[in-house]
């Protein structure tokens, strides 16, 4: 019995003789202790089983959440080693992959991607390996139709890197379209400003100049000094208006911009400002 109890079986009981002597009392005490140990062991096993069941349930719930999140993510995900070897991947839409998984898992970036892009990606992986911030790379893949992607690379452990890749072809086309529309709008606005400036300079300014000359002629022919003074003041006011119209025409479309170009016009403007 001692050997059985020493082996870890706590459900063994010592026999009690009819004599009820000191040995029997000791055996009874041991039996009571064995009963308590047996109960405590059973409770411990139950608690351990409950804890294991709780852990299994928590792991299963976490796996379910992770699986649902991965299914919901439209992005591609790649796990790589620092040397650029593809270790694992996730793709909710396999059509977005450059090559099938069997052609890149276990192979390096330089073996899979076009040479110029591979150099860029390896440089980004190296920077991500030593950085606490995500490294972003935007690139184009030569597929049946050119596709554009944006990769955000972060460290995922001592010897792993995680690359989350987003398909941005539609967004890039929309951005290019918006940029084209903006350029056309700016060109149209510039054309309209040039037209207004030309009309102010060639039409309104010329009319004001003729009006000013007519007023000066009338002032010269006036019979009285008060009339001549009033006409001279009117001529001066007309000249100020003509100058304002000329300046407005220049501000709308500086002739320097058309003659010298943007860089030359800016240099001239800086020089004029410095002298002022």
| Shape, principal axes of CA atoms | elongated
For the secondary structure, the number of strands is 5
With helices defined by DSSP (H or I, 4 residues minimum), what is the helix count? 7
Q: State the secondary-structure class.
A: alpha+beta
Helix content: 55-70%
What is the rounded Rg? 45 Å
What share of residues are in beta strands? Answer: 5-15%
The parts where pLDDT drops under 50 for at least 5 residues are 1-10
Distance between the first and last residues' Cα: 112 Å
Structure commentary:
The protein is of the alpha+beta class. Helix content is 64%, strand content 12%. It has helices at residues 2-6, 22-72, 109-112, 115-129, 169-221, 225-252, 255-275, and strands spanning 76-80, 86-90, 135-141, 147-155, 161-167. It has a 5-stranded antiparallel sheet with strand order 2-1-5-4-3, sandwiched between helices. The model is unreliable at 1-10 (pLDDT under 50).
What is the strand and helix layout of this fold?
Elements lengths: L1 H5 L15 H51 L3 E5 L5 E5 L18 H4 L2 H15 L5 E7 L5 E9 L5 E7 L1 H53 L3 H28 L2 H21 L1
Antiparallel strand pairs: 1-2, 1-5, 3-4, 4-5
Question: Brief overview, please?
Answer:
The protein is an alpha+beta fold. It has helices at 2-6, 22-72, 109-112, 115-129, 169-221, 225-252, 255-275, and strands at residues 76-80, 86-90, 135-141, 147-155, 161-167.
Keywords:
5 strands, 5-stranded antiparallel sheet, 276 residues, single chain
């Amino acid at each position: 019995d001692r050997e059985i109890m020493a082996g870890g079986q706590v459900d063994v009981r010592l026999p009690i003789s009819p004599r009820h002597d000191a040995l029997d009392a000791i055996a009874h005490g041991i039996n009571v202790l064995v009963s308590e140990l047996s109960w405590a062991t059973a409770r411990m096993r139950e608690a351990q089983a409950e804890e294991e069941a709780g852990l299994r349930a928590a792991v299963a719930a976490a796996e379910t959440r992770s699986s649902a999140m991965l299914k919901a993510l439209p992005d591609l995900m790649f796990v790589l080693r620092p040397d650029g070897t593809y270790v694992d991947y996730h793709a909710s839409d396999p059509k977005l992959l450059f090559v099938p998984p069997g052609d890149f898992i276990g192979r390096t970036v330089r073996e899979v991607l076009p040479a110029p892009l591979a150099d860029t990606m390896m440089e980004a992986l190296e920077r991500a390996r030593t950085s606490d911030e995500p490294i972003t790379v935007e690139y184009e893949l030569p597929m049946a139709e050119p596709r554009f992607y944006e990769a955000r690379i972060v460290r995922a452990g001592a010897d792993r890197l995680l690359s989350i890749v987003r398909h941005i072809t539609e967004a890039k086309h929309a951005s290019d379209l918006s940029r084209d529309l903006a350029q056309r709008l700016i060109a149209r606005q510039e054309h309209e400003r040039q037209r207004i400036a030309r009309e102010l300079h060639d039409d309104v300014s010329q009319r004001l100049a003729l009006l000013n000359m007519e007023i000066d002629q009338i002032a010269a022919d006036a019979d009285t000094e008060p009339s001549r003074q009033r006409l001279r003041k009117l001529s001066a006011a007309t000249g100020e208006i003509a100058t304002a119209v000329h300046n407005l025409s220049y501000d709308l479309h500086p002739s320097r911009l058309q003659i010298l170009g943007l860089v030359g016009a800016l240099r001239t403007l800086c020089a004029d400002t410095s002298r002022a």
